């Protein structure tokens, strides 16, 4: 990609919908998205202090979000008790909303295979010694429930929002750059621990509206033992770098570098922050040859240097855009 900053933003193609993106691990049963029978786990989760959403809860969620309860679901639950369990039709089958009973914290429960890469990675990133490290920006995991007879794990996490800017007004350039820095820093952290996310995108970025941002959806992610790992199977994530169409052996970390560059450009475009310094930052990240892309650590250093040269007046500037729907 070459040209002016404006042309860079114009050249970004709209991403594929995650729902239609084929997983590179579809052939591996334990890493496929599963469809659990949620009523079976309701009492187990209650014993651990969590409550799954009912018909009443889902209706209330749609009311608060100013969305109409889908007609098909409305017909399905016509005459059904409002206290009956109800999955949100807007979520995948392996996800279920709920709340922590003692304080009402909204949660998402994700069902995965006990032997999946996702469960292994989430367990590692949520372990006490790793969770406490400041560069780890994972969404808080409240519980990991292992159901061995089903070879299933239930990942209970706080529910954060994919709408990265709240409705009540725009954020400053300073806050926007702090969010971008968290995205870079967490990628550095994962790579240091031999983890490639492999699906970095705005679709997989959430916030708690308290200045914290996190990647979600580790379904494609891999954790490696070797020093210089290569992906040899077909790769299909949301943002696909050019080498994935041409090579059999692909550096997974350089896939993340490419995808993060696209995330940064999309975030700039959608929030109204067309920052020339960020355009210069992403140019080497989008090099056609992955061997010529910088490491995540070099990206972080370049970002910090670029931001240090932005005046306080510019950092205080606020975009005219008030919303960012991923």
From TrEMBL:
<feature type="region of interest" description="Disordered">
    <location>
        <begin position="1"/>
        <end position="25"/>
    </location>
</feature>
<dbReference type="Pfam" id="PF00069">
    <property type="entry name" value="Pkinase"/>
</dbReference>
<dbReference type="GO" id="GO:0005524">
    <property type="term" value="F:ATP binding"/>
</dbReference>
<protein>
    <recommendedName>
        <fullName>Protein kinase domain-containing protein</fullName>
    </recommendedName>
</protein>
<dbReference type="InterPro" id="IPR011009">
    <property type="entry name" value="Kinase-like_dom_sf"/>
</dbReference>
<feature type="domain" description="Protein kinase">
    <location>
        <begin position="41"/>
        <end position="307"/>
    </location>
</feature>
<dbReference type="GO" id="GO:0004672">
    <property type="term" value="F:protein kinase activity"/>
</dbReference>
<dbReference type="InterPro" id="IPR000719">
    <property type="entry name" value="Prot_kinase_dom"/>
</dbReference>
């Amino acid at each position: 990609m070459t040209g002016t900053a404006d042309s860079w933003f114009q050249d970004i193609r709209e991403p594929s919908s995650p729902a239609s993106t084929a997983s590179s691990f579809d052939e591996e049963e334990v890493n496929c998205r599963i469809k659990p029978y949620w009523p079976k786990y309701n009492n187990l989760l209650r014993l651990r202090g969590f409550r799954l959403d009912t018909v009443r809860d889902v209706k209330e969620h749609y009311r608060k979000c100013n969305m109409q309860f889908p007609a098909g679901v409305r017909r399905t639950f016509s005459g059904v008790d409002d206290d009956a369990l109800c999955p949100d039709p807007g979520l995948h089958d392996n996800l279920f909303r709920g709340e922590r009973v003692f304080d009402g914290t909204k949660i998402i429960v994700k069902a995965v295979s006990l032997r999946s890469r996702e469960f292994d990675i989430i367990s590692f990133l949520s372990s006490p010694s790793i969770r406490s490290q400041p560069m780890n920006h994972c969404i808080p995991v409240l519980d990991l429930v292992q159901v061995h007879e089903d070879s299933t794990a239930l990942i209970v996490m706080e529910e954060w929002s994919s709408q990265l800017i709240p409705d009540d007004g725009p954020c400053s350039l300073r806050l926007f750059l702090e969010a971008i820095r968290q995205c870079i820093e967490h990628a550095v952290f994962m790579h240091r621990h031999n983890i490639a996310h492999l699906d970095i995108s705005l679709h997989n970025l959430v916030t708690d509206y308290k200045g914290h941002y996190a990647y979600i959806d580790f379904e494609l992610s891999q954790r490696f033992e070797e020093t210089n790992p290569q992906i040899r199977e077909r790769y299909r994530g949301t943002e696909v770098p050019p080498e994935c169409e041409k090579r059999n052996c692909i550096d997974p970390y350089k896939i993340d570098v490419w995808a993060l560059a696209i995330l940064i450009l999309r975030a700039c475009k959608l929030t109204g922050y067309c920052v020339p310094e960020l355009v210069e930052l992403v140019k080497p990240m989008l090099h056609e040859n992955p061997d010529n892309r910088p490491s995540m650590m070099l990206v972080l250093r370049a970002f910090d240097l670029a931001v240090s040269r932005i005046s306080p007046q510019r950092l205080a500037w606020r975009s005219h855009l008030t919303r960012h729907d991923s």
